[in-house]
């Protein structure tokens, strides 16, 4: 299996985990503030990665020709900690404004659509970072954005206060994707993921004690322990770690397209778990998003020409 194919599969798994965890996030605001919920789930995610790192360190590695990231030298440590710090800050911005928007009344469908606008923001920001995006990818981004709208928005689209908060979160997640793209090939992805969760968790808890200290009680934490564990272990610990590992061999624009399928998986999970039905409009939206992802993965003319040339030889 090629590196790119492995990355695509991991990003699809990430999108599925995130999509299925959206209901848990909505339930969490019934008991904890946005900052408290994100703080606890992030700490759980970081703690959950400690035994994973211990297991990976003890495991006998098979010798490969791939260079291993340096995390022991002063430069290697600096890259690891800087990457963990910056991704943690970006994650704090994205997760906080998303949860604040949901708490302010933005529905899960609209929140999912606005959050997933990172599929447009990432390639636009990438231009300023001198990352070239092929024309076909821009077409896929537009196709996926329209599909997201059909999938997530019911009736007329109106922009309210909570929606603006979620829109800010989309920029936070866009920065997170670009920062991960830079640091993931240069350091240990699992360790960087653990650091980012502790950074995000600490910042979230500090913000909670400053802005909303009254709702942070053991009773409230225990009341939503299932959503916390689900989002902490799966959505945070597993999902974001898979993202960091997978983005090592993926372009940011294509990675954002694959991860935007979390909206589709959220809808499918609702059908399976909650018995929800899929309307014709939502079906068209799903098909458009899947088509955008498939088209983005088609080999270019040059790649096809090389494959045909090798086949003739």
Descriptors:
313 residues; disordered C terminus; mainly alpha; single chain; globular
Describe this structure in words.
By secondary structure, this protein is mainly α. 77% of the residues lie in helices and 0% in strands. It is built from 15 helices and no strands. The chain has helices at 3-20, 22-28, 34-58, 74-103, 108-115, 118-128, 135-152, 161-183, 189-211, 218-223, 225-246, 252-259, 262-274, 280-296, 301-312. The chain starts with a helix and ends with a helix.
The secondary-structure element order is: HHHHHHHHHHHHHHH
- The tally of strands reads 0
Q: What does the average pLDDT come to?
A: 80
Count the helices. How many? 15
Profile the largest sheet: none
* Classification by helices and strands: mainly alpha
**Over all CA atoms, what is the radius of gyration?**
20 Å
Distance between the termini: 23 Å
Determine the strand fraction and express it as a percent band: under 5%
Residue windows where pLDDT falls under 50 for at least 5 positions: 301-313
C-alpha geometry:
globular
Give the % helix: over 70%
Short recap of the structure:
By secondary structure, this protein is mainly α.
What is the topological layout?
Elements: H1 3-20, H2 22-28, H3 34-58, H4 74-103, H5 108-115, H6 118-128, H7 135-152, H8 161-183, H9 189-211, H10 218-223, H11 225-246, H12 252-259, H13 262-274, H14 280-296, H15 301-312
């Amino acid at each position: 299996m090629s590196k790119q194919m492995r990355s695509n599969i991991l990003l699809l798994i990430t999108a599925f985990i995130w999509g299925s965890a959206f209901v848990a996030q909505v339930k969490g605001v019934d008991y904890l503030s946005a900052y408290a919920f994100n703080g606890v789930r992030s700490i759980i995610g970081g703690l959950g990665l400690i035994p994973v790192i211990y297991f990976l360190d003890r495991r006998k590695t098979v010798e490969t020709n791939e260079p291993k990231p340096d995390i022991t030298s002063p430069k290697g440590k600096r890259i690891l900690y800087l990457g963990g710090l910056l991704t943690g800050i970006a994650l704090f911005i994205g997760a906080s404004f998303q949860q604040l928007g949901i708490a302010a009344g933005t529905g899960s469908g609209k929140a999912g659509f606005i959050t997933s606008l990172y599929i447009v923001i990432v390639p636009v920001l990438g231009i300023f970072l001198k990352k070239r995006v092929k024309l076909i990818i821009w077409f896929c981004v537009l196709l996926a954005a329209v599909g997201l709208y059909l999938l997530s928005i019911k009736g007329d689209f109106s922009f309210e206060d909570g929606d603006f908060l979620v829109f800010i979160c989309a920029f936070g997640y866009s920065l997170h994707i670009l920062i991960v793209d830079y640091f993931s090939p240069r350091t240990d992805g699992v360790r960087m993921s653990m650091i980012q969760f502790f950074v995000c968790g600490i910042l979230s808890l500090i913000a909670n004690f400053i802005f909303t200290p009254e709702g942070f009680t053991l009773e409230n934490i225990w009341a939503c322990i299932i959503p916390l564990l689900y989002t902490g272990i799966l959505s945070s610990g597993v999902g974001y770690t898979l993202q960091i590992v997978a983005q090592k061999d993926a372009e940011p624009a294509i990675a954002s397209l694959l991860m935007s399928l979390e909206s589709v998986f959220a809808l499918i999970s609702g059908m399976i778990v909650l018995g929800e039905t899929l309307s014709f409009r939502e079906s068209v939206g799903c098909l458009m998003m899947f088509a955008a992802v498939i088209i983005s993965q088609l080999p270019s003319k040059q790649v096809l020409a090389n494959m045909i040339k090798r086949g003739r030889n």
